[in-house]
Design a protein that fits this description.
single chain; 328 residues; alpha/beta; 2-enoyl-CoA Hydratase, Chain A, domain 1; 2 domains; 5-stranded parallel beta sheet; 4-stranded mixed beta sheet; 14 helices; 50% helix; 11% strand
Length: 328
């Protein structure tokens, strides 16, 4: 605990010194950078960045030598862990995903932007899918190698993968196939698409911050949060490119094979052949799909109750059944 406190204090001093260069703090992730020590460091860096009052965004980018490398955990090492070590590994990843997915942390407030250029595996996929903004490039590749190493996917984003069309989430988990940056954008996994050479300019643009005048700073809470999110999104969009038309997907793209993938899963031949890790993966995906459906159900019932000027408990069972049926 004392060593963690000293690490956090040192990180805070370094970040405080870096604030002079702008309102965006850049965190760096190298090859296999989601090991336990690095995850703890990133948690401390993110918390310290948000605690600095001038910080308006935290940008997670690859190191100069990791653009073409593999970003994520060392799965061979994770596969050799005992049960206790693996549980701790997944818990610390969950803490990082939760921190990336929320706007406030450590007493401060700033959205996270994940702009990773290279092969995103497992935990790096989770970092990208939990952050409010995920910027992909033409060199980005997204894959889930965990099941092939005997582990469920480390992304902790089954609710996102389960909602992909044409059973692509199951296809990715089963085969280890990769999605390209444009495909991630087309599927709604990435919020922005940027040319790889423009990533440094993207960080510089966010580093300029937002003045209290023209664009205005934003205080935490409600309208202030929405205003800052919109401004960060606009800055990112200025540095990004338009997506090519979907009809332009060639045979090298996974989306080209989407109809065949869906047909394969409808026959049930691939799921039957999956080992234990893949069975657990399917259970995760089903749970993620059901969880999202419950949320949608509650929202639909609330809407029905408001329409009838009733409480949620007074909505008839038949109405609930009618609302639920399209979700499954």
């Amino acid at each position: 605990m004392a060593r963690a406190s000293l690490r956090a204090a040192a990180t805070l001093r370094e970040l405080a010194a870096s604030q002079a260069c702008g309102a965006a703090v850049v965190l760096r992730a190298g090859d296999h950078s989601f090991s336990r020590p690095r995850v703890l460091d990133m948690l401390g860096e993110l918390s310290a960045a948000r605690a600095a009052r001038t910080t308006q965004s935290a940008v997670l980018m690859g190191t100069d030598g990791a653009e073409h490398g593999s970003l994520g955990s060392n799965m061979a090492k994770v596969a050799r862990m005992d049960a206790a070590a693996r549980a701790k590994h997944f818990q610390e990843l969950a803490n990082l995903m939760r921190s990336l997915g929320t706007l406030s942390d450590g007493g401060g407030w700033a959205p996270a932007v994940v702009a990773l250029d290279g092969v995103l595996c497992g935990s790096a996929v989770g970092a990208a899918l939990h952050a409010p903004f995920f910027v992909a490039t033409e060199r980005t590749r997204l894959c889930l190698p965990g099941p092939s190493h005997g582990c469920p996917p480390e992304s902790l984003a089954s609710h996102r993968l389960a909602r992909l069309p044409h059973a692509l989430g199951r296809y990715l988990a089963l085969t280890g196939a990769a999605l390209t940056g444009p495909e991630c954008y087309a599927l709604g996994l990435a919020t922005h698409l940027c040319e790889a050479h423009a990533l440094p300019q993207l960080a510089d643009a966010l580093g300029e911050g937002f003045s209290d005048g023209g664009e205005g700073g934003a205080a935490a809470g409600g309208e202030g949060e929405r205003r800052l999110l919109w401004r960060v999104s606009r800055r990112l969009s200025d540095a990004c490119v338009e997506l090519p038309p979907l009809g332009g997907w060639g045979e090298e793209h996974a989306l080209y094979y989407a109809p065949q993938v869906e047909a394969a899963f409808s026959r049930g031949s691939l799921p039957e052949a999956s080992p234990l890790a893949l069975s657990l993966t399917f259970a995760q995906l089903r749970a993620g799909l059901l969880h999202r459906s419950k949320v949608e159900l509650l929202q639909a019932v609330e809407t029905e109750a408001r329409r009838r000027h009733e409480t949620r408990a007074e909505v008839e069972d038949e109405a609930v059944a009618r609302l639920v049926t399209p979700l499954f």
